[in-house]
Design a protein that fits this description.
The protein is an alpha+beta fold. The protein contains 10 helices and 18 strands.
């Protein structure tokens, strides 16, 4: 049984990235109550202002391997619209000062509860395993900088370095009670690219006296779509998405500049570099073709904080755990799944392949709703949706059972 109520977990831990100052102590307190030597505020050396909310709990139980289990802490700036009794009603101001709702629309509440249930069971089962357990609760996953912050603050020097690192992530298209596994590449490497298309503004009635950045930006959005379709091999998965475009204040004013924000997803480093070079070339070429003066050339910024390598599940470890899941959950509840272009920073904990890692997927949706969606063609709410509503039971129970069994197999 999982003694930690799902409702309590979901309601207590709803804070934005970099601001998990209330969530972090909840996890640390629970781990200490189970007998783990726990500490919080791991990650401060990276940026003392906001990222020191990491938690590490350690339990040593004789000689044996060191296994790390990780969860995330942060929520998203989304107003929850599920109508559930435990739906988040939290409101806060984001870093830009806007009032936003706060929701665990990526299932990190499920992840935290599963980790605590696993930690509790393993603490009571000391006779069944030997070695060192390390449970970490990581801040700021949604901004792709929490794992890096904890590593920079001595995660593997102040605390035992693991022989294996494990995590789970809920899935909005897999039935509750099932788990999925993906050997090899599982999640893509992300990049955020900001582009400022500059022009020469003026009156909307006299466009010939301007260099209109809105028209240039519109042409650029379309031109960027040719990178994946015409420059990248179809055997190399890649995504270039323009997720934001902002420019102008009034219908009769041609602005001086337009801002675009892109996300780039790849698996291979050489593909990532090629795409970034193509973005720069096409952006500058489009502006030049529009007659934009050289001193008003576009500004291109690639965010280094929001870039991590692709998540690569160690194939041998992943296949081994798939066998464990099959044994404890039944073959009908274990599914081999394809890799996806979503991203996160768990892969950093593997130190570029030096530590075998595995993140597996946890079914979180009512099976009947999935079947109905397939019959009608109506999509279910996905991750980062205001209506995403994971099914607490049996999702959490399955997560605890799968993760506990995985750890026991590695430490038996």
């Amino acid at each position: 049984p999982n003694p930690w109520s799902p409702n309590k977990a979901m309601q207590a831990s709803t804070q934005l990235s970099h601001h998990e100052e209330k969530t972090s102590p909840v996890i640390a307190s629970q781990l200490r109550s189970y007998g783990y030597a726990g500490t919080g505020q791991v990650g401060k050396s990276r940026n003392p202002a906001w990222t020191g909310h990491g938690v590490v709990g350690v339990m040593k139980n004789g000689a044996g391997p060191t296994v790390l289990v990780r969860t995330e802490l942060d929520a998203l700036p989304i107003t929850e619209e599920t109508g559930l009794p435990y739906a988040s009603k939290v409101k806060t101001k984001d870093d830009s000062g806007r009032e936003v709702g706060v929701m665990h629309a990526c299932g990190h509440d499920i992840h935290m509860t599963s980790l605590l249930g696993t930690a509790h069971l393993l603490a009571e089962m000391r006779n069944d395993w030997h070695g060192t357990l390390v449970f970490i609760a990581q801040p700021s996953e949604e901004t792709i900088d929490g794992a890096r912050a904890m590593l920079a603050d001595g995660l593997y020097t102040r605390f035992p370095r693991p022989d294996f690192a494990l995590a789970l992530h809920d899935a909005p298209n897999l039935a509750a009670g099932k788990v999925g596994y993906t050997p090899g590449y599982a999640l893509a490497s992300p990049n955020t690219v900001d582009i400022t298309v500059r022009g020469l503004g003026g009156h909307g009635s006299a466009p010939e006296r301007t260099k209109d950045p809105i028209v240039t930006a519109a042409e650029l959005v379309l031109a960027l779509q040719t990178i994946v379709s015409r420059e990248i091999s179809p055997f190399d998965p890649a995504v270039v998405t323009v997720g934001m475009i902002q420019g102008g204040t009034k219908a009769n004013i041609i602005p001086d500049e337009v801002h675009l924000a892109l996300t780039v997803r790849t698996y291979k480093e050489e593909v990532r570099q090629k795409i970034l070079a193509s973005i720069a070339r096409i952006t500058r070429g489009t502006a030049e073709a529009a007659g934009v003066p050289a001193d008003r050339a576009p500004l291109i910024k690639v965010s280094e904080n929001e870039q991590v390598p692709a998540t690569y599940n160690d194939p041998q470890l992943t296949e081994r755990l798939a066998g464990v899941f099959t044994k404890v959950l039944g073959a009908e509840n274990v599914v081999k799944r394809p890799s996806v272009m979503a991203s996160e920073d768990f892969g950093l904990l593997g130190l570029h392949g030096k530590i075998p890692i595995c993140t597996f997927t946890l079914g979180a949706v009512d099976a009947e709703k999935i079947a109905q969606s397939q019959r009608t063609g109506t999509p279910l709410p996905g991750l980062h949706s205001s209506k995403f509503a994971p099914l607490p039971e049996p999702t959490i129970r399955t997560g605890v059972k799968a993760m506990t069994s995985a750890v026991l197999d590695l430490m038996k």
